[in-house]
């Protein structure tokens, strides 16, 4: 056990080391986008207040450092970030960071709910497909996986609303809680969960297919290895061999790919949040687009990337935990 | 003597080929039987068939395998699982790939213990540490938590052996246990295996292509060629007594070592048997006939049966050698100047 | 949403000749035949060709502007034989919308895949071929772009620029190249020490010639497989963008039709179901082609 912890510790250091340049690059890219945005903050503010003379504009530009060179503005931007400031949204009349942080938990719940669901369901389907590879169960599930893989999640969400909300009336069609219900305790939790089901299905569907296909391929690959024969020679039950030997080894490539798709998961969340009126970062980003509030939009992009970096780091740590050979490579 | 494992007329087919053809074999309690042959001769397929561990693509076409009096062929999967790892166990050629890379070595030993004996986690751990000590892995309590990649090849094979003997099996099948190891390590591993055989009074089926190993460690020898057993005798008789009766065995002997009795051969160098191993499902006659210096017309038409050629000595040849030489009808020794 | 098949092995068979490598496993003439013999690829190809034909001949089949009102509003499919798939709340022909929508979807899919392929192959080839510091930097760049959520990046780009087919394709392509770059880099790393590359070097060929004329043709198999999957993901991303109202407002697209139909989800759900089904079928056909190509080009990888 202590060996494992050491490994994870070493990995943590490496992750931090790698994340820093990524974050820096992210910040610079974001700044470049800000430069490209038509009009500057002064235009926006002036537009909001409705009255702007050339004099007040210059004053505003001076206040926001917009009259400086690009390099100077970048420094000012970095300085702001160092103080955890992403700017101010005139539209919402609130600091951008506060706006985003208020929406962040909603997105995280949806994202990790879908990730967990997709992972577990995908693993089960993939394990079944590999155990019966070439048989009818495998064929049927392969077709299902391919269909899920080809269908937009938001459309699955809409169709699920038609079926489960409109026709069957089982589940709510939108929002993250029953409005004005003032529930407490378990009722509150249940209400939240009921609202979470359909968005999770919509967001998870595509990733269920990815994990299922991947699990199938990875398990079939591991199946060919000698230690599987050793495990059989020990007299273990085939299911036990499947789970504690084959699946355990197959998890390593599966988690790697899970990391690669985290960004896509967040991207999918943007659309699904719109379908279900789910109060998250994605919907905030779209509201910002409609309002032409680019500070908020770019803040969302920056923070979303942070979320992906952190989630990737978590997956790297999980990897270090799962694979004892990791330090060797 | 009492046989603990008896295979009768065992035939195993893989898609497109018959790997094992009518093999009859018995292993006595406590002995080391060496199963010798080139790669592709069906040794490993025979071993896997004895364990009923053949891959799904393989089929046992005929034959019976009796182990401690029960017929394994009729046994349900659950009963077979109760035998595997407990009464019969197996070690393989490649200890690196045969161990699970993401499970600690101790955990892999404890797993087989807990499968077959109702032990607590703690008890299984203690027993596994004892087993690591038994196979002479230094500092076993600390090594328990290490992973296969932390160990050397020899150490890994020791772990495999510890796993195999964990439940005190009656029969250990060792499939080329030293082929992947350094020469210096090979003797250590074989010595360990032999010591454990005595200590735990188990039988060992030693699969190898190395007659040097056979001469040193085996009680009896069965030679396989193209899916059939072509000769079966005691090691003493083969190496010190009358010598091989089958020309193939003699070819193997010559290619392995220039024997002490080098006077039979003009060159004290390694010889090779000309040609390659034939497909067991191929020709109707003796599979070795195309490579055999003493082959005659009979050999091409029907396979020679495995018959007694001396006390406890079986050979499948129409013209068995006597005293390691071809009988006079086949001409002189020069005809067998193999290679 | 860019997706790559789990692991793609480098092409194992490399024939050594006079510095000019033989085209990988399958010659140019045998590849089409192998695809036609593969039922998965064939099915995908047939569906895909149907969509392509629909896109190409949309103007002939439905000469009127699909945004025009042509019949009674909200006709269900089958209700009026003149409008086989019904009409929407504005009396627009759904079938005409689907046909014209195929244009936008396939066009964006193809252009963005070309952009992604171009950037990804270039970055991967240069990094994998030269190695060293250049490689380190490009790997960082690739990882960096992989970190940014493609969808959000596309939204930002389209929001800042004007939404047009070209800009949407660019936005999607810029977000999807890392997959190709990783793949190409792996291929180049394994091929750069190959005998035919050594032979080319000994003949004094320049780096550019070796990269594009010697190595790239041998590294193409997995790239081709991934390209079809890229088009598929691009179609999905485009549909999401236009669903969010970030598509080209002057062009009918499937995502846009879903967004319009969504307002009548409770009563006229066919307005949502039909374009969604079209997306699903088109993307499915691309994925089938990808799977089939994978079977043909990387036979070792097939399960069982």
Model description:
The complex is a heterotrimer of chains A (329), B (339) and C (304). Chain A has 329 residues and is mainly α. Chain A contains 13 helices and two strands; from the N terminus they run ααααββααααααααα. Chain A has helices spanning 2-36, 41-49, 54-64, 70-82, 96-131, 136-150, 153-167, 185-223, 226-233, 238-260, 262-276, 281-290, 294-322, and strands spanning 88-89, 94-95. Chain A is globular and about 85 Å long. Chain B contains twelve helices and twelve strands. Chain B has helices at 43-51, 77-83, 95-98, 105-116, 121-134, 140-143, 153-165, 183-200, 211-217, 235-239, 247-256, 297-301, and strands spanning 3-14, 17-28, 32-36, 59-67, 70-71, 88-91, 171-175, 203-208, 220-225, 228-234, 307-310, 313-315. The radius of gyration of chain B is 21 Å and the shape is globular. Chain C has one domain (47-61, 86-299): MetI-like (MetI-like fold). Chains in contact: A-B, A-C. The interface between A and B is medium-sized, with 24 and 31 residues.
- Quote the CATH topology of the largest domain in chain A: MetI-like fold
What's the pLDDT, averaged over the residues of chain B?
81
Q: How much is the radius of gyration of chain A in Å? A: 24 Å
Low-confidence runs of at least 5 consecutive residues of chain B: 258-271, 326-339
What percent of residues of chain B adopt helix (DSSP H or I)? 25-40%
Largest beta-sheet characterization of chain B? 8 strands, mixed
Tally of alpha and pi helices of chain B: 12
Brief characterization of the structure:
The complex is a heterotrimer of chains A (329), B (339) and C (304). Chain B is globular and about 65 Å long.
Task: Name a few traits of the molecule.
heterotrimer, B: 339 residues, alpha/beta, 8-stranded mixed beta sheet, 4-stranded antiparallel beta sheet, 12 strands, 22% strand, globular, disordered C terminus, C: 304 residues, mainly alpha, MetI-like fold, 11 helices, elongated, disordered N terminus, transmembrane (chain A), MetI-like_sf (chain A), ABC transporter permease (chain A)
Q: Can you lay out the helices and strands and say which pair or pack?
A:
The complex is a heterotrimer of chains A (329), B (339) and C (304).
Chain A: H1 2-36, H2 41-49, H3 54-64, H4 70-82, E1 88-89, E2 94-95, H5 96-131, H6 136-150, H7 153-167, H8 185-223, H9 226-233, H10 238-260, H11 262-276, H12 281-290, H13 294-322
Antiparallel strand pairs in A: 1-2
Helix pairs in contact in A: 1-4, 1-13, 2-3, 5-6, 5-8, 5-11, 5-13, 6-8, 7-8, 7-11, 8-10, 8-11, 9-10, 10-13, 11-12, 12-13
Chain B: E1 3-14, E2 17-28, E3 32-36, H1 43-51, E4 59-67, E5 70-71, H2 77-83, E6 88-91, H3 95-98, H4 105-116, H5 121-134, H6 140-143, H7 153-165, E7 171-175, H8 183-200, E8 203-208, H9 211-217, E9 220-225, E10 228-234, H10 235-239, H11 247-256, H12 297-301, E11 307-310, E12 313-315
Chain C: H1 30-37, H2 39-56, H3 58-61, H4 94-130, H5 132-147, H6 150-160, H7 165-191, H8 195-202, H9 207-243, H10 254-262, H11 270-297
Helix pairs in contact in C: 2-4, 2-11, 4-5, 4-7, 4-9, 4-11, 5-7, 6-7, 7-9, 8-9, 9-10, 9-11, 10-11
């Amino acid at each position: 056990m202590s060996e494992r912890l050491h490994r994870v510790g070493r990995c943590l250091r490496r992750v931090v080391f790698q994340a820093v340049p990524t974050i820096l690059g992210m910040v610079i890219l974001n700044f470049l986008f800000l430069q490209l945005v038509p009009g500057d903050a002064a235009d926006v503010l002036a537009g909001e207040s409705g009255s702007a003379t050339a004099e007040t504009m210059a004053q505003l530009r001076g206040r926001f450092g917009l009259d400086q060179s690009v390099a100077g503005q970048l420094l000012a931007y970095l300085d702001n970030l160092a103080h955890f400031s992403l700017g101010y949204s005139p539209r919402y009349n609130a600091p951008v960071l506060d706006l985003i942080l208020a929406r962040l938990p909603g997105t995280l719940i949806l994202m990790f709910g879908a990730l967990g669901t997709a992972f577990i369901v995908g693993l089960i389907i993939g394990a079944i497909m590999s155990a019966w590879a070439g048989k009818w169960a495998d064929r049927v599930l392969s077709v299902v996986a391919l269909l899920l893989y080809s269908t937009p999640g938001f459309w699955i969400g809409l169709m699920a609303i038609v079926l489960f909300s409109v026709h069957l009336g089982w589940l709510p069609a939108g929002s993250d809680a029953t409005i004005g219900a003032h529930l407490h305790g378990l009722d509150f939790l249940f209400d939240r969960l009921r609202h979470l089901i359909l968005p999770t299905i919509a967001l998870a569907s595509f990733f269920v297919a990815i994990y299922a296909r991947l699990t199938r391929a990875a398990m079939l690959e591991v199946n060919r290895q000698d230690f599987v024969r050793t495990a059989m020679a020990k007299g273990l039950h085939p299911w036990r061999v499947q789970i504690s030997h084959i699946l355990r080894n197959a998890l390593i490539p599966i988690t790697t790919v899970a990391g690669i798709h985290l960004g896509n998961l967040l991207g999918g969340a943007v659309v699904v949040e719109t379908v279900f009126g789910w109060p998250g970062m994605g919907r905030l980003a779209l509201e910002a687009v409609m309002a032409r509030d680019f500070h908020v939009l770019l803040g969302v992009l920056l923070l979303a990337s942070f979320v992906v970096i952190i989630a990737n780091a978590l997956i790297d740590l999980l990897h270090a935990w799962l694979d004892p050979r990791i330090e060797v490579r | 003597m009492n046989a603990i494992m008896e295979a009768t007329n065992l035939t195993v087919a893989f898609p497109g080929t018959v790997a094992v053809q009518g093999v009859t074999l018995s292993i006595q309690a406590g002995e080391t039987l060496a199963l010798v042959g080139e790669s592709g001769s069906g040794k490993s397929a025979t071993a896997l068939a004895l364990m009923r561990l053949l891959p799904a693509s393989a089929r046992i076409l005929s034959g019976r395998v009796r182990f401690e009096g029960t017929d394994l062929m009729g046994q349900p999967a659950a009963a077979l699982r109760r035998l595997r790892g407990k009464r019969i166990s197996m070690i393989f050629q490649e200890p690196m790939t045969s161990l699970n890379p993401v499970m600690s070595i101790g955990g892999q030993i404890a797993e087989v213990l807990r499968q077959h004996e109702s032990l607590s986690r703690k008890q299984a751990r203690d027993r596994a540490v004892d087993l690591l000590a038994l196979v002479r892995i230094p500092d076993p309590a600390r090594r328990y938590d290490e992973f296969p990649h932390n160990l050397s090849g020899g150490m890994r094979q020791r772990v495999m052996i510890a796993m195999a003997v964990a439940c005190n099996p009656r029969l250990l099948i060792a499939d080329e246990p030293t082929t992947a190891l350094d020469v210096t390590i090979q003797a250590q591993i074989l010595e360990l295996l032999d010591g454990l055989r005595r200590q735990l009074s188990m039988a060992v089926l030693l699969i190898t292509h190395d007659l040097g190993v056979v001469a040193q460690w085996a009680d009896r020898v069965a030679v396989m060629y193209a899916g059939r057993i072509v000769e079966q005798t005691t090691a003493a008789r083969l190496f010190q007594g009358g010598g091989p009766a089958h020309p193939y065995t003699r070819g193997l002997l010559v290619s392995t070592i220039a024997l002490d009795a080098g006077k039979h051969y003009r060159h004290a160098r390694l010889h090779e048997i000309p040609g390659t191993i034939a497909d067991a499902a191929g020709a109707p006659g003796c599979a070795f006939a195309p490579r055999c210096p003493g082959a005659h017309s009979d050999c091409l038409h029907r396979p020679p049966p495995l018959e007694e050629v001396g006390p406890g000595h079986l050979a499948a040849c129409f013209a068995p050698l006597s005293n390691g030489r071809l009988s006079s009808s086949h001409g002189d020794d020069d005809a067998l100047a193999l290679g | 949403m860019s997706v790559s098949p789990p692991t793609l092995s480098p092409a194992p068979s490399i024939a050594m000749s006079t510095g000019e490598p033989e085209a990988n496993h399958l010659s140019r003439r045998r590849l089409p035949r192998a695809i036609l013999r593969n039922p998965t690829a064939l099915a995908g190809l047939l569906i895909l060709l149907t969509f392509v034909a629909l896109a190409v001949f949309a103007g002939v089949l439905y000469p009127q502007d699909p945004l025009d009102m042509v019949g009674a509003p909200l006709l269900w499919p089958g209700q009026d034989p003149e409008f086989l798939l019904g009409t929407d709340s504005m009396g627009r022909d759904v079938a005409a919308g689907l046909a014209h929508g195929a244009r936008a979807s396939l066009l964006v899919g193809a252009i963005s895949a070309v952009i992604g392929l171009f950037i990804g192959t270039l970055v991967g080839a240069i990094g994998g071929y030269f190695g060293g510091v250049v490689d380190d930097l490009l790997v960082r760049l690739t990882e960096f772009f992989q970190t940014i959520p493609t969808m959000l990046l596309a939204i930002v780009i389209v929001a800042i620029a004007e939404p047009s087919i070209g800009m949407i394709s660019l936005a999607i392509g810029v977000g999807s190249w890392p997959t190709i770059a990783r793949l190409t880099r792996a291929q180049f790393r394994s091929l750069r020490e190959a005998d035919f590359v050594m032979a080319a070097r000994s003949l004094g060929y320049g780096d550019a010639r070796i990269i594009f004329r010697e190595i790239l043709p041998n590294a193409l198999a997995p790239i081709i497989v991934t390209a079809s999957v890229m088009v598929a993901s691009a179609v999905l991303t485009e549909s999401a963008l236009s669903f969010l109202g970030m598509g080209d407002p002057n062009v009918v697209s499937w995502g846009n039709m879903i967004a319009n139909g969504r307002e009548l989800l409770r009563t006229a759900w066919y307005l949502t179901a039909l374009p969604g089904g079209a997306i699903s079928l088109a993307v499915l056909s691309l994925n089938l082609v990808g799977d089939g190509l994978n079977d043909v080009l990387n036979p070792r990888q097939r399960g069982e």
